[in-house]
Amino acid sequence: MNTNIVTTNVRIPKNQYMQAKNNAADLDMSLNEYINTLIEEDTKNTFFGHKGKKVTGAKKEDSPYQALLDLAKKPYKPEPMGASEDDKIIYGIKD
User: Which end of the chain has less neighbouring CB within 10 Å, N or C?
Assistant: First the structure.
């Protein structure tokens, strides 16, 4: 099966990045593999809008990825990060 791959840039607070990187290392995974696994698991759990129906038989607390999913769902209101220099060029943002 030929899969189209998209490369993207995600901005997250450094402490969450380091936690995710540590979680991945604990599972002997790269951060990329860890995030892709989280996304795959979450999209399986929300297949056709049926959020909450688990595809696998694992219990919520047994999932090694649940802690990161719970962290991602926590309300977080960071200070605005502003546009990066690249964003300013790409989107024509003037200071």
Answer: N
Tokens in use for 73? Answer: 């769902």
Identity (one letter) of the amino acid at 50? H
Helices (H), 1-95: 14-26, 31-45, 66-73, 85-91
How does pLDDT run across 37-80, given as a tens digit for each residue?
A: 988 887 776 655 555 544 455 455 556 677 777 777 777 667 77
Taken as a whole, the chain contains a residue count of 95
Helix axes 66-73, 14-26, angle to 10 degrees: 170
State the pLDDT at residue 25.
92
Residue with tokens 């840039």: 9
DSSP conformational letter for 65: T
Q: Tell me how far apart the alpha carbons of residues 40 and 51 are, in angstroms, rounded to a whole number.
A: 14
